[in-house]
Amino acid sequence: MAGEGTEHVIRVEDVYYEYPDGVEALRGVSMTVSSGEFVAIMGENGAGKTTLIKHFNGVLKPTRGRVLIKGRDTREHSVAGLSRIVGLVFQNPDHQLFGETVYDEVAFALRNFNFPMEVIERRVEWALKMMELYRYKDRSPYSLSVGERKRLAIAAVLAYDPEIIVLDEPTAGQDYVQKEKISEILNLLRTMGKTVVIVTHDIEFVMEHVDRVYLMSEGRIIASAPPRELFTQQALLRRAHLLPPQPVRLARVLFGERFAEYDIYDLDGLLDALFGGRHGGIEGI
Ligand SMILES: Nc1ncnc2c1ncn2[C@@H]1O[C@H](COP(=O)(O)OP(=O)(O)OP(=O)(O)O)[C@@H](O)[C@H]1O
């Protein structure tokens, strides 16, 4: 986790955003993300999560308030310039497919950012292999499945190596094996010192990967806390239409009032409480 005094690479200051048709999607949002931090933004459908992250590369500019990316006010910088620092993978991968082939798709940003040819080749091959798409490199992106297209959009961002990576619903539509793959990528990004923001409804994924959760509801941030603190607070979760992780819910049923005495946030914690460490861990299940 990034320590105190670490540089805030994302700083959102009292931001309001109103869509042209009058929908007020953000209502006074303030938040920060430190360098190297992994943060999740969670909340009910329509809470404003996607609207918020679209402010990080300047696709949307605040109606009121300001967004600073590494100190740069997004209103004074181009989307292209900000995108070099912030790689954003949209919820719907089709919104960011441009290339005729899978290879071109990943090479697109690298060419735009004028990387040398040999670097482009190396990076594209690396990113496609990471996302297990290399064998499709000559195919049209539109011939891929939805899950594969999502991984292609992630590969395209990984390839040009931005400092901040923002993923909108990365695990949606991915099977168990590919979800593990995305987990591996996140672990790798952590060792590389990247800053990562994930928008997701996937509580288990959040428990595994993030340092801090910003909980949103109706265009506002209603809480900011490490996942373990947040996921035991039922009233807050209910406001954001989230359920605690299943092991936490089961532990409440099993242990009632004594629940708080145990260290239960995931399945391993529950198994420890039940069997005192005499179990094979969740891998055996
Ligand atoms: N282009 C748009 N024009 C008008 N209103 C919009 C537009 N995009 C989003 N909204 C509205 O803004 C609000 C916030 O939407 P947003 O997509 O940011 O929510 P979200 O938290 O990402 O939701 P979800 O979990 O469903 O993806 C919603 O009321 C939505 O209907």
TrEMBL record:
Look up the domain of life of the source: Archaea
Give its localization.
Cell membrane
Q: Which InterPro entries match?
A: AAA+_ATPase, ABC_transporter-like_ATP-bd, ABC_transporter-like_CS, ABC_transpr_CbiO/EcfA_su, ECF_ABC_transporter_ATP-bd, P-loop_NTPase
Gene Ontology CC annotations of this record: ATP-binding cassette (ABC) transporter complex
The way this protein sits in the membrane is described as: Peripheral membrane protein
Which residue ranges run through the membrane?
none
A GO molecular function term, named singly, is: ATP hydrolysis activity
SMART domains the record matches: AAA (SM00382)
Instruction: Recite the UniProt keywords alphabetically.
Output: ATP-binding, Cell membrane, Membrane, Nucleotide-binding, Translocase, Transport
Which Pfam families does the entry mention?
Answer: ABC_tran
Q: Which residues form the ABC transporter domain?
A: 10-243
Function per UniProt: Probably part of an ABC transporter complex. Responsible for energy coupling to the transport system.
As for family, the record states: Belongs to the ABC transporter superfamily.
- Its name, as the record gives it, is ABC transporter ATP-binding protein
Organism of origin is Infirmifilum lucidum
The top of its lineage is:
Archaea, Thermoproteota, Thermoprotei, Thermofilales, Thermofilaceae
